[in-house]
Amino acid sequence: MLNGIISGVNELGGGFGETLIRRNLGLVYEILDEVVVAGVPVSTDVEFLREVIYNEPDAEWKSSIERKPLKQRTESIITHEQKLISRSEVFVDLLETVTGTFNPSGEALRSEIEGSLIMKSFLKGDPELQVQLSGNFSILNEEGHKTSYETVILDQLNFHERVDTTDFSNHRTLKIEPKDGEITLMKYRIEDNTRLPFRIFTCFDDFPEDDRATEVVVRIRADFPGHVTAQACSLSFSLPKYTLSASNTITPDTAADEKASFDFDSKTINWTIPKFVGCTEKTLHTKVLLEHAIDRSNEFEEMGQVDVRFQIANWTSSGIGIAKLKVFDRTCTHNAPKKWVRHLTASENYSQRF
């Protein structure tokens, strides 16, 4: 869709760049308004946009653009938007939030996953929706299912009262007759036996020549597949209140938009990693200079914990996924609906203690 928006601005605005966008905000805004209606993607087709865009580009670019004569609408903009919104669609999200606490050597002291299967329906008619789940999981105390070392145990599982779970035990299939709006079809919780996306390791390196200086080393490792990328990843931790200065070095230093900074007022280190590829690791070396000599006996107590935040699309920490999404129109009077599926894992309370 982003490429389609860029193509639309390029075709209708005569190019794509910071200066053009700044001088043609009205045109760009109108394109975005037509591409997405009520939060729902519509179309990025250039011919479609030619018919519905009324703003002209800045005069400087006008001469280089071949604009077809605009066709007159035979319906109001409100009617046009109502038709777009009236399309038959269903959105199903499998969202997981991960809690993890680690010791300095990277061992998990506590782990928990809370998952939600959320449906937002704009389906027409009187359809039946079926969602089949995948993954090697079993329910605590569930009979009739073999478990192995790799089996994920759901410690708690709840369904919405309107969900038909007749086929869930044998086929992991949920059935529902959806109504317009959003509902949570299923919620689950997994404790301890979890696959955590990141491991965090910390240590201190001393400087014998200066007893006021120390180096904090924070290493984070991505334990999810290499074809998966975490987004908006960040780490932060506090330094002692008597810190005078701190300098940061990241290894490997491969991303231009990756940075670590020291906030003197809050005595906090903030490390941002916009994209973190699976099966890789990164290390932050923070050299800290203090007002007075370090008390080695409680050096760890002077430091705060490392807090980690992240989002990982198209991957779940539990391995549970949406295998099939089917819509059965029992009246056979409507076109096949659009079906949208999303998997997302995000941090809840993810930290490592010094």
TrEMBL record:
Cellular component GO terms held in the UniProt record: clathrin adaptor complex; endomembrane system
Keywords for the protein's UniProt record, in alphabetical order: Membrane, Protein transport, Transport
Claim: Protein transport is one of the keywords in the record: yes
Family matches, as InterPro entries: Adaptor_comp_med_subunit (IPR050431), AP2_Mu_C_sf (IPR036168), Clathrin_mu (IPR001392), Longin-like_dom_sf (IPR011012), MHD (IPR028565)
Main location: membrane
Pfam families registered for this protein in UniProt: Adap_comp_sub
Subcellular localization(s) per the UniProt record: Endomembrane system
SUPFAM superfamilies tied to this protein: Second domain of Mu2 adaptin subunit (ap50) of ap2 adaptor (SSF49447), SNARE-like (SSF64356)
BP GO terms, sorted: intracellular protein transport; vesicle-mediated transport
Keyword Cell cycle: no
Gene3D superfamilies with a match to the protein in the record: 3.30.450.60, Mu homology domain, subdomain B
MHD domain location: 87-353
Family to which this protein belongs: Belongs to the adaptor complexes medium subunit family.
Cross-referenced PANTHER family: AP COMPLEX SUBUNIT MU
Record-given protein name: Clathrin adaptor, mu subunit
Annotated source species: Basidiobolus meristosporus CBS 931.73
